[in-house]
Amino acid sequence: MDSEYKIPAHVAIIMDGNGRWAKRRGLPRTMGHAQGARVVEQILEDADHMGIRYLTVYAFSTENWTRPAAEVKALMNLLRSYMKTSLVKCAKNNVRVRVIGDKTALDEDLRESIDYLEQQTKDNTGIGFQIAINYGGRDELRRAVSRIAQDVKDGRLSPEDISEDTINGALDTGGIPDPDLLIRTCGEERISNFLLWQLAYSELYFTEKAWPDFDKAELEKAIDAYNHRERRFGGLTEVQS
Ligand code: IPE
Ligand code: IPE
Ligand code: MG
Question: How far is the CA of 184 from the centre of ligand 2 (A)?
Fold first, then answer.
């Protein structure tokens, strides 16, 4: 392994355990989500300071609609408030925000504030911050396939010209490099429909810490672990050959 310490360019996080965190404290689940929202803002700053270029967080999955209506509403309200309050901070910290997922199912006012935040931050050159809302990896692929099929139908593209780049470009994450490191908190070791295409060669890191307890020291631990991984991408390393 080379001795140089590597900061992953793109870190993706499945922020899990808000509900359990709250329950352990005898609080309603929504309090866990509120604390989780504070943590994500802090981690964005920490990631930026550490030199991470892209941070992608899973805020609401296509499956999370099946939760009780009150919880869904509380989550949407947190997202609403984030889109409004983060404008000034994103400008100050040069953050570029992109929401991935199917925005068409979101309430119109939320969609508008997402569009506004994306528009206002699109030329920022600092960390790229992707927030996955109503996101599912399968749904993202379905929408991408549909777009590509339309291009074929309209004669802009022929089937034999469909490359991996065509698919990359049709995904919500188009133009963003694949995650180098995926972190999932609170003990669960599964992908839960997150970034199915993009995680092909990401290193996976799981921690028992619930998301509301996650902090810079935990992020550093994950990056330390990443530095002990040997990424092969299907090839051979010097040790093996
Ligand atoms: C993660 O915390 C936040 C969302 C999925 C929206 P959870 O709400 O899943 O918390 P647990 O897994 O029930 O503890
Ligand atoms: C994944 O967490 C989705 C988000 C973090 C937004 P879940 O808590 O919804 O996933 P499962 O149900 O445990 O797989
Ligand atoms: Mg969960």
Answer: 10
CA distances from 216 to 10, 41, 50, 123, 161 (A): 16, 11, 10, 27, 44
Distance CA 218, CA 110 (A): 31
Single out the residue of 138, 197, 137, 193 nearest to residue 16, CA to CA: 193
Residue 117, Cα to own-chain centre: how many angstroms?
17
Buried b (16+ CB within 10 A) or exposed e, 182-213: bbbbbeeeebebbbebbbeebbebbbebbbbb
- Residue 136 is encoded by which pair of tokens? 């599912």
Burial of 63 (0-12, 13-18, 19+ CB in 10 A): exposed
| Separation of alpha carbons 237 and 142, rounded Å | 36
| Spacing, Cα 94 to ligand 3 middle (Å) | 31
pLDDT in tens, 92-148: 999 999 999 999 999 999 999 999 999 999 999 999 999 999 999 999 999 999 999
Residue spans of the domains in the chain: they are 10-136+178-227
Q: Is the CB of 221 under 6 A from ligand 1?
A: no
* Secondary structure letter of residue 62 according to DSSP: T
Predicted local distance difference test score (pLDDT) of residue 241: 79
Domain 10-136+178-227: assigned CATH number? 3.40.1180.10
pLDDT tens string 226-241: 999 999 999 998 778 7
Q: Is 175 exposed, middle or buried (0-12, 13-18, 19+ CB in 10 A)?
A: exposed
- The preferred substitution site among 15, 16, 27, 39 for testing ligand 1, maximizing ligand atoms within 8 Å of CB, is 16
